[in-house]
Design a protein that fits this description.
This protein has 144 residues and is of the alpha+beta class. The chain is built from four helices and four strands; from the N terminus they run ααβααβββ. Keywords: Activator, RNA-binding, Transcription, Transcription regulation.
Length: 144
Amino acid sequence: MISLGKVAVLSVLQTEAEEISLLEQSLALGYKVYKGKVGSMDSAKIFAAVETAAKREGFIGSHYREEHALYHSILEAYQGICRGNAGLGNVLRSAGLLYSIVRGTRAAGCADDGEWIAVALYGYMGAPMKGFEHEVLGLGMNPI
């Protein structure tokens, strides 16, 4: 069984060839999936990139609950890649990330639980010098 969080994480980890199969399987189960990339030393730019993509691709509308669920999903994923409350920029760290946004039920066939939104972040973080970075992965999920 494939779940919302698993689709989000696998989307950012897979190569383009593997991604096609996952996308077909996810769509058949009713999930909406988007993948993008962002790099910055400024956390606000990371949040803005994911939120802008979610709005542009129709993952959320202008309802407060949808925007709130997305924001907290991004925040949870971001805290995962930052190992807690530390951020970027002001502590001289930069990030190059792939991100995925997934909307649907928490688990396939679990419609009585309502819709959820998940955000996964995967990539590299470290000192803003090539060769001084390491891999990071974060996931956030919230009900809409």
